[in-house]
């Protein structure tokens, strides 16, 4: 009777059903990847009219990366540039493109746009594994149509590369327990190492991973983490050596070393650590800036880019809306915290890494994938409650999200929030 009541997993019909489901999911991933490519193709076409299409603006960081990349393409393995503050990985990434295709910024944009489309696909795959197919679609589309994401994929700055490596490393870590082979360890350690090399402040992510996975400190669980950490160190070693040669002393990729995590900056551009000791008000303003709709520019003006493409004017281009939805998704997901611990570690670690440093539009871009994931989960929950006729519950949450969005979209609520010249 037991055999009759429970389908045999090896039965041809069960195998066929599972195969069909896998095939459908593959097609879903293919379609969202195509949508991401079409979106970037359209933006690339509209971007032609932008003065920054074939040059970079008066940005010290863009100039540093461009000159360092040219040095590397011309045979300088240290990728020397006038300013050595920034981590070298993006110079090598850019220099590799220059070496293969010459210094052609259109080729750079094409590579970065393709990398952005892969980021959309990876967000989709992460959500499908952590949540469901509808959340995957929503999160992928939310990220795809976030205007600043498209903008920073088309400039010489490392924001898009950090975003890509962050999502790749998260996906690799999620997959690792499913197949903890040595090859899988290598395929996980490499993106993790590159993620850290791109911007060392992301080490905060791994601090939270250790906090959320305290069981890793037990002897029986240490084998895989120790091997992974060793491989990450090996992959980081060449960049550490390069940085030491360039700076003439051991540094953690960046010229500022460990102080990068707590630099003496504020949203006004003045020192904030001393002020923080006297009052928490300045820190609260930084937190508000991080979650708000306001785009604090320091290299490129997002509003001027909006004039050249309607894709930068979508509702999800408003970071305040993404924050409001993402924060509610973040809160709702706490019911299954253990299942989503890696996602929480990346979300919290990346957010704090930005808040502790400097609140600007480009620094927030690498956080967008994780906010998009939580926003997708929040919208999926609202849809589920509506389908279940839980109108009161969904209505209350919609009102709360709207109220939070209004607050995050109203910097005038704090009169001295934006420093006046």
Can you walk me through this structure?
The protein is an all-alpha fold and 421 residues long. The protein has one domain (27-413). Helix content is 65%, strand content 0%. The chain is built from 19 helices and no strands. It has helices at 2-5, 12-47, 60-73, 89-101, 105-130, 133-144, 147-153, 159-175, 182-198, 203-212, 223-247, 273-278, 281-291, 302-306, 319-332, 341-355, 361-364, 368-387, 391-408. The longest helix is centred in the first third of the chain and has 36 residues, at 12-47. The model is unreliable at 1-7, 257-272 and 417-421 (pLDDT under 50).
Proportion in β-strands: under 5%
Order of helices and strands: HHHHHHHHHHHHHHHHHHH
**What characteristic shape results from the CA principal axes?**
globular
Query: How many separate structural domains?
Result: 1
The low-confidence runs, each spanning 5 or more residues with pLDDT under 50, are 1-7, 257-272, 417-421
Query: What would the average pLDDT be, to the nearest integer?
Result: 83
Short descriptors:
421 residues, 19 helices, 0% strand, disordered N terminus, disordered C terminus
Overview in brief:
The protein is mainly α.
Q: Which helices and strands occur, and which strands form pairs?
A:
Elements (H helix, E strand, L loop, with lengths): L1 H4 L6 H36 L12 H14 L15 H13 L3 H26 L2 H12 L2 H7 L5 H17 L6 H17 L4 H10 L10 H25 L25 H6 L2 H11 L10 H5 L12 H14 L8 H15 L5 H4 L3 H20 L3 H18 L13
């Amino acid at each position: 009777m037991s055999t009759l009541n429970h389908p045999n997993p090896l039965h041809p019909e069960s195998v066929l059903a599972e195969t069909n489901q896998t095939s459908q999911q593959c097609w879903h991933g293919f379609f969202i990847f195509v949508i991401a490519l079409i979106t970037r193709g359209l933006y690339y076409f509209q971007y032609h009219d932008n003065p920054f299409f074939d040059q970079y603006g008066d940005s010290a960081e863009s100039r540093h990366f461009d000159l360092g990349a040219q040095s590397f393409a011309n045979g300088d393995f240290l990728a020397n540039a006038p300013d050595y503050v920034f981590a070298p990985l993006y110079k090598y990434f850019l220099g590799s493109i220059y070496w293969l295709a010459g210094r052609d910024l259109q080729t750079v944009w094409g590579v970065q746009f393709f990398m952005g489309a892969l980021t959309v696909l990876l967000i989709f795959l992460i959500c499908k594994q952590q949540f469901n197919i509808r959340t995957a679609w929503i999160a992928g589309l939310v990220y795809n149509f976030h205007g600043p994401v498209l903008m920073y994929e088309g400039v010489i700055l490392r924001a898009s590369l950090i975003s890509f490596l962050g999502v790749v490393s998260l996906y690799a870590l999620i997959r690792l327990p499913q197949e903890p082979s040595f090859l899988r360890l290598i395929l996980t350690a490499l993106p993790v190492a590159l993620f850290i090399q791109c911007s060392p402040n992301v080490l905060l992510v791994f601090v939270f991973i250790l906090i959320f996975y305290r069981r890793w400190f037990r002897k029986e669980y240490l084998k895989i983490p120790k091997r992974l950490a060793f491989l990450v160190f090996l992959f980081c070693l060449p960049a550490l050596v390069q940085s030491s040669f360039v700076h003439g002393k051991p540094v953690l990729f960046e010229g500022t070393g460990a102080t990068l995590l707590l630099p003496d900056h504020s949203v006004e551009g003045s020192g904030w650590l001393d002020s923080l000791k006297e009052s928490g008000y300045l820190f609260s303003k930084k937190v508000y800036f991080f979650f708000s709709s306001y785009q604090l520019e320091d290299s490129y003006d997002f509003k001027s880019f909006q004039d050249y493409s309607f894709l930068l004017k979508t509702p999800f281009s408003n970071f305040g809306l993404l924050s409001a939805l993402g924060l509610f998704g973040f809160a709702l997901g706490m019911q299954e915290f253990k299942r989503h611990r890696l996602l929480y570690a990346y979300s919290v670690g990346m957010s704090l890494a930005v808040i502790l440093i400097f609140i600007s539009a480009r620094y927030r871009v690498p956080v967008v994938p994780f906010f998009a994931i939580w926003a997708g989960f929040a919208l999926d929950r609202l849809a589920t409650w509506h389908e279940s006729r839980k109108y009161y519950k969904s209505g209350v949450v919609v009102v709360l999200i709207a109220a939070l969005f209004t607050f995050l979209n109203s910097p005038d609520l704090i009169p001295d929030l934006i420093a006046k010249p």
